[in-house]
Design a protein that fits this description.
The complex is a heterodimer of chains A (121) and B (145). With 121 residues, chain A is an all-alpha fold. Chain A has a single domain, classed as 3 helical TM bundles of succinate and fumarate reductases (Up-down Bundle), CATH 1.20.1300. Chain A has four helices and no strands. Chain B has one domain: Fumarate reductase/succinate dehydrogenase, transmembrane subunit (3 helical TM bundles of succinate and fumarate reductases), CATH 1.20.1300. The chains are: A mainly alpha (121), B mainly alpha (145). Chains A and B meet through α1, α2, α3 and α4 of A and α1, α2 and α4 of B.
Amino acid sequence: MSVNYGSRRIVAGAHYGLRDWLAQRATAGIMALFTIIVLAQLLFSRGPMGYDKWAGIFSAQWMKVLTFAVVLALAYHVWVGMRDIWMDYVKPVGVRLMLHIFTIVWLLGCAGWAVQVLWRL
Amino acid sequence: MTELVKPVRPEFRNINAFKDLRTYRLPPAGWVSILHRVSGAIMFVLLPFIIWMFDTSVSSEISFAKFKACFNVGMLGIPGVLWKLVALALIWAYLHHFAAGLRHLWMDISHKAVSKEFGKTSALATLAVSLGLALILGLKLFGAY
């Protein structure tokens, strides 16, 4: 880590370890909470589970807001995790950078789709 | 002065995926660790399918019927049983990632949990919970009860 500028600048790495480490745990907590909330609504609903009940869970405004936050948390969480995998197994910096870019595009696309589904409900 | 003879010391390097994996005995904590990674990667790859399931199951009565037909009849020329297997893989991946993640968080919070003994028992508990629940939900998915 002595020279990190010019042609030796590290272009694909974690950069700031603690911030992402902490973010990974915070986002995990949010998603775990979300899982419990969805499960609770499934378990405490009466009668057979059909479209109305399932869609009803996500159509409440507070649930939309929460799910939106969870989608963003998921994207950040997966970004940190996938970047860790690429950093561990892929050494050529060009290939790694390409995989990082692919990961971001993949996650942004999925997040956009999920938000669209959520907000037309 | 006598010459210092350098003793031949064993070298431990990273394991080779092709030569060492067959004989490498991973401790339970190691299994939980690599499976945490594998389950995360599976969910990353299948993320569009997860959102497709969210989309079709929640958007309308008609799309909900399409969602059910995917698993009961099939979709894109792939029989429903295979789609159920994909769903089961996702169920296991989520359960394992969840349980192993809670184990991680517990070890981050408690210094007492960072010990060899706790590492082993909590790893075995993680595997028991994730595989057990995946089995129960898998039997439900395939209509065993």
